[in-house]
Amino acid sequence: MTIPVIDASALASGDKEKLVEFRTKLLNGLSTYGFVKLINHTVPVPLVTETFDQIKKFFRLPLELKLPIANTQTDKQQRGWCLPGEEKTWYLESNKLGIKEKEPKFSDSKESFDCGHPNDKLYPNKWPSTDVLPGYQDTLEGFFYSSGDLTLVLLELIAEALELDPTIFTSRCTNEASTIRINHFPPVDRAILDRGDVSRIWPHNDFGIISLVFLDVVQGLEYEDRSNPGTFLPLPYESDQEVVVIAGETLQRWTNGLIRAGLHRVNRPLDFDGDLVPERWSLVYFNKANRNVNVGPLKETTMITTKLVGFKVQ
Ligand SMILES: O=C(O)CCC(=O)C(=O)O
Ligand SMILES: [Fe+2]
User: What are the coiled-coil residue ranges (predicted)?
Assistant: First the structure.
């Protein structure tokens, strides 16, 4: 099973026939695999490149410049510089912030920078100072808005492809609760990853409606092969023009299981046979339901389930 690569140029051109073709392929791909790849999408490639450049600078900052915006245990949502529990205990305790977390049994070998909607008052973003990283906040906010716009267009097209009210999903999602996660996977000994208790990211579903993943050249994203559950296939980076769309758990519930969430993980590059696995980056936009809405099955999608029995990717 191979994830379809779909030409999304109709999103910019507005060509009606091509949009119908696009939305059919989008729904087919997401409902069959849980994933599609788009090319010629609407997030400008220079903006993605600039976002990668900025966040690489952020992660290279010395510890004392990242610590002031570290995510802490008392933060209700992840914002700012985020580390998995084990590393957090080490970094933060050694800097006397007194934040102690239980060591997880299976940990992810990564750090991330997380932020939400630029106007989120409930969980405000944490930014490095402009003296330290000029343009960082502006670039990430631009990336947030541009990726967010793409997700809303995709949600309307998925609804239309299901022959539902086009606003059935977007009336429940304005991206006010959506988030960006920028992952940095530091170089790691291959032996540590092969030991079996540390991974780059363990298998998981994303919680939101859909996720957009922009990949960088170092490979590692893998998706579950639904014809052979529990096994994973590589979802490779092929060009800087592409974005991976992943169905999340909220979409699975809203569609009453019609579009199942795509299980995925991050592994070391499969063809890598050296000792030190190279560092890796990814930019993720988690499109999430608004905080006040129900994320249970929608009655409208319960009714269409039978209509789509035998639905197959073309
Ligand atoms: O790094 C990747 O390719 C995917 C990241 C991911 O799955 C996540 O952050 O939820
Ligand atoms: Fe994920």
Answer: none
Q: 44-76: per-residue pLDDT in tens?
A: 999 999 999 999 999 999 988 998 899 877 778
Any ligand 1 atom below 6 A from CB of 11: no
Q: What is the dihedral of CA 52, 155, 201, 39, to 10 degrees?
A: -50
* Ligand 1 site, residue 114, Cβ cutoff 6 A: no
Once rounded to an integer, what is the mean pLDDT over residues 17-41? Answer: 97
Per-residue tokens: 17: 């026939």
Entry field: residues in the chain: 314
Burial of 228 (0-12, 13-18, 19+ CB in 10 A): exposed
Residue 65 CA to ligand 1 center (angstroms) comes to 25
Distance separating alpha carbons of residues 285 and 3, to the nearest angstrom: 19
- The answer to whether the CB of 108 is under 6 A from ligand 1 is no
**Separation CA 139–CA 33 (nearest Å):** 32
CA of 265 to the centre of ligand 2 (A): 7
The answer to whether the CB of 264 is under 6 A from ligand 1 is yes
| pLDDT tens-digit map of 95-114 | 545 444 544 556 788 889 99
Q: What is the ipTM of this complex?
A: 0.99
Between the CA of 246 and the centroid of ligand 2 the distance, in Å, is 8
What stretch of H or E contains 51? Answer: helix 45-59
Q: Which domains does the chain have, with CATH numbers?
A: 5-304 (2.60.120.330)
User: For ligand 1, is residue 112 a contact (CB within 6 Å)?
Assistant: no
Q: What is the rounded radius of gyration, in angstroms, for the C-alpha atoms of the chain? A: 20
Helix (H/G/I), strand (E/B), else coil: 243 = strand
